Amino acid sequence: MIKYLIQATNPLSQFIQITLYIPVRHLSQVRLQLPAWRAGRYQLANYVQNIRNLKVLAPFGKQIPIGKHTKDLWEFSPDHVGEYQVHYEYYCAKMDAGSCWVDDKQIYLNFVNCCLEVEGQSAERILVQVTHPSHFQSCTTLLTENDQYFASNYQQLADSSFLASQKLTHETFEIDKVKFHLWFQGKILFNLAEFKTKVEQFTKKQIKAFGEFPVNEYHFIYQLLPYPHYHGVEHQRGTVITFGPADSLTGREHMNELMGVSCHELYHAWNVCQIRPKEILPYDFSKEAYHKAGWMVEGVTTYMGDLFLLRSGYYSLKEYCETFEKILNRESVNFGWQNQSILESSFDLWIDGYVAGIPDKKVSIYTHGALVAFCLDAMLLDEISSLHQVMKILWKRFGKPKIGYTLEEVWQAVLSQTDHPIYFNQFYEDYIAGTEDIFPVVEKHLGTLGFELNTKSRADPLSSDFGVITQEDGKITKIHPASEAYNKLMAGDILKSQELTANRLRLSIDRFGRDIQVELQTTSTLYFKDYFLIDKKNNPKRMDWIAG
Which residues does residue 530 pair with via DSSP β-bridges, in sequence order? Predict the structure, then answer.
């Protein structure tokens, strides 16, 4: 059995000391691979930059040479069979839902960051021991047997998290013999009993929709922080969610955000953790794993996560509409759809998927993907089916037997629910594989559900009337490509003053140290605008949509 011993001898240094015990049974080269990325974020993270002092000890304590084959792959030549020890330190100084953090109050680990994979022994069972002060409480998504932590194999280890803290608040509930845990590190200033009830309600709804839960135990692990933060990461046996400031959760708006990410991550327990593109089943953490399924992986989950908050009764219809409006308004300022399909943007996640990138190059697999998912759901509603019915098919066909899907197989599942394949195939060509504007289609399908999609001027007339978005300090961050300003201003210009006359706007600009004077003509065009929904009520199809 492979064993890991992890301890933090000086937590304030934020280094942990790791000893990996490897049973060597043959005198052949031993290769140790550290992951370069993690599940749920298709972007190289290069965790190797956090490692120092790596060395190998033979069975009798003698240090032996080890060399690097690539930036994060080591290899050594054993001269005896027996148990070898690999010693190294890992720097734990990033607080988010997918990283590691150590200080005097807690030890928080995502093992994919810091644990080496022993090539050729990835299928072996792994014992994990994390040493911490006796008064600390702990929780983990690892398997627990007789107060010991195990992973069935390296894939499970890399999909697991651990938290030990001076004080953890713990609640549980059970649904269909599956035990769910709620763990909280940090201040709880909201009504915990009410929170637990709401989580239980949307969990029940999701389980009922799929018919079963993928695992027999699941952990919601919350890091409630004193500063602004928002992040969640999915795992097969749980999720880690970092959120702050904790004080803000006394208000409904921020609680909606916490509930939103919680429901989203739970849906991932099926979608991605089990129903997964073949390109990432299993995960190869040593290199990029390109796939084009971003609209399935995150778009469907974003849409379904919000919808299940409505179906479970947590969201009122008004709150759901406000959440949908946020998606629309985030998408409305991005013209990446003109230049790249969501399939291409998914493939390019490894390049710039989680940062702004160059202007209007790509679309978001989250928000644009959610609009794609909504349209498909509305189209399937006309066929007396639903997008979730498709997901249930994919669960039975690919998720439960743990067989990776292709996008062609996903689309066949969609087409199995319609007698009008030409209509659906055209949608795929235009809005999934293509670069057509999806907003008119969204508006059409909102109408079939009894909502009217309207627009209004933004609070800032410079963005609405002239197509120029600025930061508080006057720095221009976005220019509408159809505006006159697109040919006269540039991103990075700093607006020093503006004067509006009857038909003209005069701007004084600091362009990287140069003073520039610019005039823009007033027009009747509304460039950047806010979208909002008007509820027309009394729509029978809507009831079917909400009921699922």
Answer: 456
What is the tens place of the pLDDT at every residue in 76-121?
A: 999 999 999 999 999 999 999 999 999 999 999 999 999 999 999 9
**Token reading at 433:** 């594989």
Residue ranges of domains in the chain, CATH in brackets: 2-165 (2.60.40.3650), 168-269 (1.10.390.10), 280-451+544-548 (1.10.390.10), 459-527 (2.30.42.10)
Between CA 325 and CA 439 the distance in angstroms is 12
Radius of gyration of the chain from its Cα atoms, rounded to whole angstroms: 26
From residue 188, give the alpha-carbon distance in Å to each of 141, 172, 240, 284, 314. Answer: 22, 16, 16, 38, 20
Where in 389-471 does DSSP place strands (E)?
451-457, 468-470
Give the whole-angstrom CA distance, residue 299 versus residue 440.
18
Q: What is the DSSP string of 232-287?
A: EEEETTEEEEEEE-GGGGGSHHHHHHHHHHHHHHHHHTTBTTTB-BGGGSS--TTS
d(CA 177, CA 391): 23
List pLDDT tens digits, range 292-311. Answer: 999 999 999 999 999 999 99
Mean pLDDT of 423-442: 98
Query: Do 223 and 241 contact (CB within 8 A), yes or no?
Result: yes
Residue 505: partners with Cβ closer than 8 Å, 6 or more residues away: 466, 498, 499, 519, 520, 521, 522
Distance of CA 63 to the CA centre of its chain: 41
- The reported pLDDT for the residue numbered 46 is 96
DSSP per position, 211-238: SS-SSSEEEEEEEE-SS-EEEEEEETTE
